[in-house]
Structure formats: C-alpha cells, structure tokens
Amino acid sequence: MSPARITRDRVERAALRVLRPAVIAALLLGTAFPFYYMAVLSLRDVQSLILAPESALVPPREIRLDAYREVLTPADAGGQGFGTFIRNSLLVSAATVALTLLAAVPGAYAVARLRFFGRRQVHFLFLAVYLFPPIVLAIPLFVFFSLIGLRGSLAGLALVYIAQTLPVCVYMLRNYFETVPRSVEEAAALDGCGTLATLWRVTLPLSLPALTATGLYVFMIAWNEFLFALLFLVEDRDRWTVSLGLSQLAGAVEVPTTVLMAGSVVLTLPVVALFFAFERLVTSGLTAGSERG
Amino acid sequence: MTREPTTRRRREARTALALLSPTLVITLVVVVLPMLWALMLAFQRARLINIRYTGLLGHHTLENFAYVLGEPGFWQGLAVTLIYTIAGTFLSIAGGLVAALALRDRFRGRGLVRASILLPYVAPVVAATFVWQVMLSPQYGIANELGTRLLGWDRPVAFLSEARGELLGVTVPTALLTVIAFEAWRYFPFAFLFLLARLQAVPKELEEAALVDGATPAQRLRHVIMPQLWRVVALLSVLRFVFTFNKFDDVYLLTGGGAGTEMVSVRVFTLLTARDDIGASAAQAVVLALVLVVFLAVYLRSFAAERSPE
What we know:
The structure holds two protein chains of two kinds. By secondary structure, chain A is mostly helical. Chain A has 14 helices and no strands. Chain A has two domains: 3-64, no CATH class; 75-292, MetI-like fold. Chain A has helices at 3-43, 46-51, 66-72, 82-113, 119-131, 134-148, 154-177, 182-190, 195-206, 208-224, 227-233, 242-251, 257-277, 279-287. In chain A, helix 12 (242-251) packs antiparallel against helix 13. Chain B has a domain at 83-238: MetI-like fold (Orthogonal Bundle), CATH 1.10.3720.10. Chain B is built from 13 helices and two strands, in the order αααααααββαααααα. Chain B has a two-stranded antiparallel sheet with strand order 1-2. In chain B, helix 5 (110-122) packs across helix 8 (174-199). The longest helix of chain B is centred in the first third of the chain and has 39 residues, at 3-41. At the A-B interface, helix 1, helix 4, helix 5, helix 6 and helix 7 of A face helix 1, helix 4, helix 5, helix 6 and helix 7 of B.
C-alpha cells in the first residue's frame, strides 16, 4: 500500500466519522421536526402563535386543548365534527382491508402455487394497474358513479380503494406464500385436504405476519387517500373522510392555524401509531423480493 | 401419455381461475373497463349534464384533443410536469441512497431514526402538506421567521404562491422548487426502504475483500457497493418516475396548481370538476398517459440496450 493511499484512506475515514452523524442528525431533524411542530402548534394559543411563530416549544402551563375541542365537537354543536369523519374513515378503511384481503388471499395463493394458462400475463395486468395514473381512472369512475347514484356513497369509495390495492396485495402475499415450504402443504394434501382446506388450515396460519403487514398497508392507503374522496364525497358533509374534512377546513373562512394543526394530528396519529406498532412487519412486507435484486 | 395428468392439470387451472376470479372481476370492472371508457370519452363531446344521452358509440370527434392541445397553458404544463418528475425522482432516490448508506451500520437509536425517516411517507398527504404550508407561510411561518431573523433575508419568501423569485441573484421558479422539495422529502423514505433492504443483503465478504485490497471508503462505495445497487436504483427510477408524473394530490394541496405549478394531472382535475368538461378532461388524461408510455418505452429500451452486450 502506497503512503498516498494510506493518507487518502485516513482522510476519507475521518470525513466519514464527521459526515455520518451529521447526516443522521439532519435526517432526524428533517423528518421528525415538521410532525413535532404540528403537535406543538395544535397545543398552543392562537395569539401566542402570531406573536412568536418561531418558538417550537410550548411551556406545559400554556398547553391549550381548545383546538382539539373545536375539531372534535359535532358540527351542529358549533364544532368541526371530526367525530363523524373519523367514523367514516374507519368504516371505509376497515371494509377495504377486509374485502381486499378476502379477494387477495385466494388470488395470491393461486399465483404462487397453481399452474394455469396466463399466469405470467396476470402479473403484467397487475403491474399495469399498479402503475396506471389514478387521475385517468378518476374520470370514468366519477361519471359512472354519478350515473348509477353511487357517487357520494362510502361503499363506492371503498370499491375504488379495493381495486387499487388488490394488485399490490396479491403481489405481496404471493411473495410470502412462496416462502412457505411446499412439503408442509403436501403433507396436508396427503391427509386429504383439498386446495382450499390446505390454504385455510396450513398456509394462512403460517402467513399471519404477511397478512398483518398487507392489511396495514391497505389500511394506510385507504385512510390517507384524498383524490377519490374529494371527487366522490365533497358535496355531502356527513360522508366526508378525515382527509377530506381536513382539506375542506383549510378552505373555510377564519379557521385558526391551531385548529388546522389539531385536525392534522387527528388525521396523522392513528396511521402513524399503527405503523410504529408494526413497523418491522410493514417494511419487510413492502420490500419483500427486492433483496433478490 | 396417460389421461390422468391432463385432467389434473385442467382441474388445477380451473381451481386457480376460481381463486383468482374475485380479483380479476374487480380489476376488470373498476379498472380495465373504466380505462377503456375514458379512452372513448376523450373522443366525445361529453358533459355531466348530457352524459346520459351521449351513448357509448357515435359522434366521435377529435375536437377535445384539438382544444386541449391548443390551450395556452398546455405545453407549459407538460414542461412543468416533466421538470417536476425528473427532479423529484432524482432527488428522492439520491436522498434515499444517502439515508440508506448512513443507516447501514448499527448504532444506538438506529431503529428510532429509521422509523422517523419513514414518517413523511407514512403520514397522510393532507396533513403533511398542511404542516409545510404553515411552516412556509410568509406571515407566521417558522421558515420565514428564522430566515429573516437569522439568515438575513430582507423579506419573507412566499414559497408556495410566488412563481418567480430570486436566489443568489438568479431568477428561480420558487413555487415549483418548493413543490419539488416536498416531493423529495415525502418520497425519499420509499427509496430508502428499498435501498437499505438491498444494502443489507450485500455479502460482507465482498467488502472485506476490497478492504484487504486497500480500497478506501469512497472506492468501496463506487466499485463494490454501487454495482450491487444499480438494479434497485433502476427499478426505483421507473416507479418514482411513473408515480411522480401521475401525482395529483401533493401539488393540488400545496399550491392548487397556481404560481407555475400547474401539472397535467391538476389540469385534468380542473377540467373535470370546475369546467365540467368530461371529454376535454379525458383527452387531457389520455395525453398524460401517452406521454408516460412514450417515456417508459424510451427508458426501458435504453436500459435493455445497455444490458444486452453482457
């Protein structure tokens, strides 16, 4: 090793020792601060916010819960009625998760285990759906749902979410099913289980982590979605989801920033809490297969 | 050739189709058929009021396309969309790469940092755009407050409503840059996840061998690690390009498509809702999809050409 090389190595290592912690600190600050700031603003008093917007701290005795009170109070009692929005979002998301899994599990099993004509084409179809612009789909669905009177219904919204998440779910579950040893399933088949019984009694219990991860992924998509909620539900306040309700709040006159931020916290908290509770599961489910290169 | 295997195969295929049928039916009814219908609507003079009488066939015309392509803002919208897409794709992948490299080796609190990095991606878009709006507000935003007080800006910057601003004496499209920064911030976690997963699958022996050969950290990154990552980077480029090109809600919520950020998808939405012109909006959407397909084809071809000599 030449001396020049050794010094270059030393310089680079020294630079890395400084750079790495700096990058990590910057990442932490850049990603966490906006959410921290959101929470702080939701707890502050509007007046003090206008006087000192740069203050990112809220002294414990100055904590105000007024914004949350306003957000959660029903609309007929003078509040913003987020309770209704939360119920709507929960209904749509839960229905989407349940029905998507119900359709995706057998589908993924078929793609993972059974030989049939068109197996490769199925993948292509799903990839196309996954990549297709939602805004293009929005037009005919908007028109169609208007025509059959399904626009403004939560069921119609759930149906769209199911269609949009199904392909990815089939893909995620298939990747997992393929890791379940065939020998286990063959043993069940020898015991006289048919395809469905094998799937139900053997493969599914072994796939609970993947089912949880996939379910959470679908829940996140459905809970966070904005475009279709806006297109389908905007005329009927009682049907608004939390995302839509919050976005409409911003357009309303004279809604204080603290209330907006409280609404943002209400919208963000459930999905972030769920995500952190199951973080490892969700991330490994999302990137499954990418390790293969 | 006995008859038994063929019937078993056929039975297997039938079971497979039965198991897949819910997925296929939903995809067909809610995605494929509407897609075809959108294509037809693009050639019809359709409005929500008269749609019942428009019918599926007949009265096909190219008027919608002529109208959409002839509109003054169209080409600018397309250019803005492309700039936004390319810059957003590049920055989110570069950011994800830096983050993945920084978090590759264990350290205390890595799990926490990792979780924090994923926040922008997991959080609902409406909430994320609102915090940005509040933080960047010219009246009470923390960014402008700190900028004018500590960094010596002579006046607050209207990050989201100013089409042109000045940065170091150069005129820059302020709102467009802000929207791009948001895109990079929100989606670098996506690239980070994939790249970290791939990084952790790189065999340790490869790097150890390079270390023994006296490779410096930068050399190891360039000659050992990056070659292992290119495939994932290529995949991410396609995914991020497509998703960013189609993006609607981020831009719509941040700027409403104003101040030089009118992406094609926002135009589609405006035509559909504000102007109630289904035909024109469908035509605009078809143009969007076509441009996307052209770009994908070019990209995949050059990618294939690059790999074929091996």
